[in-house]
Amino acid sequence: DGGITQSPKYLFRKEGQNVTLSCEQNLNHDAMYWYRQDPGQGLRLIYYSQIVNDFQKGDIAEGYSVSREKKESFPLTVTSAQKNPTAFYLCASGTGAYNEQFFGPGTRLTVL
Amino acid sequence: GENVEQHPSTLSVQEGDSAVIKCTYSDSASNYFPWYKQELGKRPQLIIDIRSNVGEKKDQRIAVTLNKTAKHFSLHITETQPEDSAVYFCAARGSGGYQKVTFGIGTKLQVIP
Question: How much is the pLDDT for B96?
Fold first, then answer.
């Protein structure tokens, strides 16, 4: 999973601002995912993409947007419409018939 | 869709004892069950997985069992060590065109030296 990078590691945002979280992978995986992690709530799926130029909403997509213009990249934008954006955001990529997922190091977003 | 329940939410064991974490799933067509370990502030890392055509899998001190009839699977850690302290997540890959993986809420394991 060393082939998945996320930046920045920490991000601070003022209310009303949009911010974009970066996720890059060099594992040649077709599928990529964004999860949000809050204490005591496990991992919740925000968006996923199975192939370039295609992505789908997950369980908690409201207030978020993504793009998938390149196989290696799947950036996540947290918009001002997201009411409670402070959380730990994890990107993952998946491969194989069983969709084995490998995670990036995460970005901790704090809204001031 | 798939629903995964995990328990206990916290678990404390003495060093050297065994730890067991249990999960149930709802989609009888689910066919892949990974377990992840997440240390504080770090990424979840895959530690072991099991597929629906197998009942048990072991890797050194870690083993996973699957009961398809009852729709539950468990993680067993033997001879626990302080470095086993972490949050453990179970997950299940459901059926359907999209290979969605649904995670449990996690179990915080504390190994007391």
Answer: 58
The dihedral region occupied by A96, where left means phi > 0, alpha psi between -120 and 50, and beta the remainder, is left
Among A41, A98, A36, residue whose Cα is nearest residue A64:
A36
Q: How far is A27 from A112, CA to CA, in rounded Å?
A: 35
Nearest CA in chain B to A97: B99
Q: From the CA of A94, how many Å to the nearest CA of chain B? A: 10
pLDDT in tens, B53-106: 889 999 999 999 999 999 999 999 999 999 999 999 999 987 655 667 899 999
Strand-pairing partners, residue B57, are: B64
Query: Backbone phi, then psi, for B82, in 5-degree steps?
Result: -55, -35
End-to-end Cα distance, chain B? 41
Q: What average pLDDT is seen over chain A?
A: 92
Of B32, B43, B44, the CB nearest to A98: B32
